[in-house]
Structure formats: C-alpha cells, structure tokens
Amino acid sequence: MRTLLVLTAFCEAATGLAVLVEPALVARLLLGAEVAGIGLVISRVAGTALVAIATMCWLARHESYGVALRGLLAGVLVYDVAVAAVLAHAGLGLSSSGILLWSAVVAHGGLGCWCAICLTSFPERNAQAPIPGEPSLGRTPTMRPTAPSRYSAAQFLIALILLLCVSPVLEESATGEILEGILLTIVLIAAIPAVGGRRRTVLIASLLALPAISGKWLHHFHPDVFRHEWFLAAAIVFALFVVGHHLGFILRSAKVDQQVLCAGVSAFLMLGLLWTFGYLLLNGLSPGAIMMELEPEAHRPLHGFGAMYFSFATLSGAYCPEITATSNLARMLALLEGMTAMFYVAILIARLVALYSEESADE
234-251, pLDDT tens digit by residue? Predict the structure, then answer.
C-alpha cells in the first residue's frame, strides 16, 4: 500500500507541475490538441488539484489501517477510474488522441485496480470487542481474510438495487442508454471488492471485469466495430464468478451477520442480472428467440429493460404473458433460471437456519 501511495504521489506531482508550467504541451501529448485562453486557466487549476492529490498521498504513506486511509484510497480510486474513462472517451468518442493518451489510460486503470485491491485488504474483525469488566476467556479477535468487508458488501447490494429500480425510468429518457451504462459500470466495479478479501481473488475479479466494462463502452461508442455480444459474453463470465464466490462465502460462514445477509440478497439479484445477459446474448445470436408483444399483433425482439424484466419475473416465479420464448434454447434457459432460483432459495434458507441453530446452541 505504501508503494501505491508513493507511486501515485510522484506521478501526480510530476503531471501536476507539468500542467502548471506547460499546459499546452501536456494537452498536445495527451489529446493532440491546442489549449488557449480560458483553457489555460482551467488546465492550471487541474494541475493544482493534481499537486494536492500528490501531497495527500505522500503525507499518508506511513499511515496504518484506518478510516482516514480508507477514505483517501477510495478518493484516489474514483479519481483513477474517472480519469481513465474520460481519456478513453476522448480517444474513442471524440477522436482526440495524443502520443501519451493510451499510456495514461492504461496507467490510471492499473492504479485504479491496485487501489481496489488495497481497499479489500483492510482487516475486518470477526469477533466482538470484549465487554468492559468481564473476562475475555483468553479469546482474541479473529480475522476473516476471505470475507468481503461490510462496506463493500452493502455498497454492492445498493448498486444492484439502484440499477434494478432506475433502469425502467432511464429507458424512456433521451440519455437513458449512457446513464444505464454508467450504472451498470458502477455495479461491475462494486462487485470487485465484494467478492472477498484475498488479493488473488480480487485481482482475478478485476481481470474478468475489465473486458466486460471496456466491451460495454467500446460498443457504445463504436457499435459498428465492437459487437454487443462480446460485452455480454464477458459479463456472463464475470457474473458467474461473483455469484460463485458469494455462494461459497455463505456456505463457509460460521455465523449469520450483515455480510452474510447482504451476500445472500446480492447473489440472488446477480443471478437475475446473469440471466439478463444470457437472454440478450441469445437474442443477439439468434434474433427472434425471445419476443415482446407491446401491443396486439405488434411483436419485437427482446432488448433493454425488457430482458431484465423477463429475467427477474422468471427468477421470482411471476407470470409475464407479453414476453414469449419462441425457440427451444430460450425456453430451456427460462426453465434453468426458474429451477436455479428454487434451489438457491432452498439452499440459502437451509444454510441460514443451520447457522442460526448452531449459534443458539452455542449460547
């Protein structure tokens, strides 16, 4: 973690000073464009902000685990991800590219992944603190290295619920597609620290999430070059990884707590999102495999929120007569989703009841 803070401090300080002294040169190297007038003032303000980030990272390099360090790393993570996204959009969407643009995108993306891994390494205590005045019986707090932190588990669940609730509203707006893409990106990023605390696991999750996130935005800006099916295939693999780790965490847990409950609900919602990707992929590869009837005698292929609606309706056992699976493969996918939901709920309830019974017996 100290290496990350020192590296960030040096990189941002060098970039910030360069922007303060020669903003026009930095603009040409990054974007291949000229900056003049009020743009020079804004560039120098941005350079001052970079120097401030470098100063904070340098002064915090010797800090131990704590709320302040967690907040600093979270801020640096948001900064790295946002800068990588903005620069990538400049290169892909605006066709404004300098010789150092993609190097900066890769560097900020790598630093962002490094920040995410460091955030998941913060220790979470599994035992309660001893009550003053009572003997501790020689017990010491134990660590749960494979569990997601209570913050990351809750944030992932909130992001999933937000995506589910806001998607139908966004589909009706003019900018709905890009806003939904941002929400989906937030969900995929929030899933990375939620898979667990081991660095190898988080690194694998980051590597699996990267093609899904990049594929989503590459298709958005260049739909004629990057097919939507590439993003869907990568998203399915990542969703399977997340659901598997959440279910494994629930089955290995020794007690029922907030993390276990959040993981249980998140895995269920992620199953619905997983099948949403699957239905969209099937309809992309085999157009007309699943059809929506919006009006009598007016059918159209499944897309957008319709796929999410069909998936979660099937997952919860609801009936949606306006959506029809017309191919055998689509029908089989729907049957598999219904059976998966049934077995998941049965296994989850059985495991939670067993854990609660063990806790009651111990007390």
Answer: 899 999 999 988 888 888
d(CA 227, CA 281) in angstroms, rounded, equals 11
SS3 of 346, please?
Answer: helix
CA 220 to chain centre: 18
Q: Report which secondary-structure segment, H or E, holds 243.
A: helix 228-252
Mean pLDDT value across the chain = 80
Give the DSSP per-residue string, 186-220. Answer: HHHHHHHHHT-S-HHHHHHHHHHHHHHHHHHHHHH
Sign (positive/negative) of CA torsion 299, 301, 305, 307? positive
In this prediction, residue 275 has a pLDDT band, given cuts at 50, 70 and 90, of very high
Q: What are phi and psi of 42, to 5 degrees?
A: -65, -40
pLDDT at 341 over 80: yes
Q: Is 142 exposed, middle or buried (0-12, 13-18, 19+ CB in 10 A)?
A: exposed
Residue 194 CA to residue 266 CA, distance in Å, equals 10
CA distances from 48 to 15, 30, 82 (A): 10, 18, 18
What are phi and psi for residue 290, nearest 5 degrees? -135, 125
Q: What is the pTM of this model?
A: 0.64
Angle between helices 258-285 and 328-362 (to 10 degrees): 170
- Ramachandran region of residue 288, left (φ > 0), alpha (ψ -120 to 50) or beta? left
* pLDDT (tens digit per residue) in 42-82: 888 988 999 998 898 888 888 777 778 888 888 888 888 88
